[in-house]
Design goal:
alpha+beta, 5 helices, 19% strand, five-stranded mixed β-sheet, 234 residues
Length: 234
């Protein structure tokens, strides 16, 4: 059964990679062929190189996203060392990392986190989960739309919420947002892997993720993770 699951995972990864890498590779080749087709000015060559660089960066993001998602999906939950993770400290790290982006976009980015909320997990993966959610809100809302990150206890669970005041998501699209390579209507950036990766990370930590959205009313993504009981020093 394990061998069959591993082979199915390999086939899925190979199909995903072949399908998603085809377009940026073709675009990169086209840009380079056009640049070499005739003599251009220095400015013309620069524009061609910038186009090629953009496609190369897209390839890099796709490759990184595919490899990370594949590793999380295929990984044994015990393969990566789990440890106690303070969610208030994690939220502060995410805020420090993304605040310059919020300032550049002219948006309000508020962070509220209860102290001493601890979950057990892989710090880098949990940080990646929260960064992905906030970055997704930044990229899919107008620059002036406020984004809020809230970490609080709810019963025996830690509740991580990312709320935005954007245009919201069409009701028909909401059930599909966690699918691989699913991108929002009109989206011009991103790989469509961010929310799929968040779902896998949450699942690997014994948690779950949900999204609620209303056109014109913003979007809220909620992650619930089991809390580690007992007092925490610091």
């Amino acid at each position: 059964a394990r061998l069959e699951a591993a082979m199915a995972h390999l086939r899925r990864f190979t199909a995903d990679a072949a399908h998603e890498l085809r377009t940026p590779l073709a675009a990169l080749r086209a840009h380079l062929e056009v640049a070499l087709a005739r003599v251009r000015s220095a400015e013309g060559y620069r524009d061609g190189l910038l186009d090629a660089l953009e496609q190369t960066e897209r390839l890099g993001r796709l490759a990184e996203g595919l490899l990370t998602l594949s590793a999380v999906e295929a990984g044994d939950p015990g393969a990566l060392p789990a440890e106690p993770v303070r969610l208030d400290e994690l939220a502060r790290e995410v805020a420090e990392f993304l605040e310059p982006v919020a300032q550049e976009q002219g948006r309000r980015f508020d962070v509220r986190a209860e102290r001493a909320l601890v979950v057990r997990g892989v710090p880098d993966l949990l940080k990646r989960l929260v960064i992905n959610l906030v970055d997704n809100a930044f990229r899919h809302t107008a620059p002036g739309a406020a984004v809020e990150l809230v970490v609080a206890a709810d019963g025996g669970e830690a509740c991580i919420e990312v709320r935005d005041r954007g245009a919201g998501i069409a009701a028909a699209d909401v059930p599909h947002v966690f699918e691989r390579f699913r991108r929002g209507r009109g989206a011009t950036a991103g790989t469509g892997l961010g929310l799929a990766l968040c779902r896998e990370i949450a699942a690997r930590h014994g948690g779950r993720i949900a999204l609620k959205s209303e056109p014109g009313g913003g979007t809220t993504v909620t992650v619930r993770l089991p809390l580690v009981p007992g007092p925490v020093a610091g």
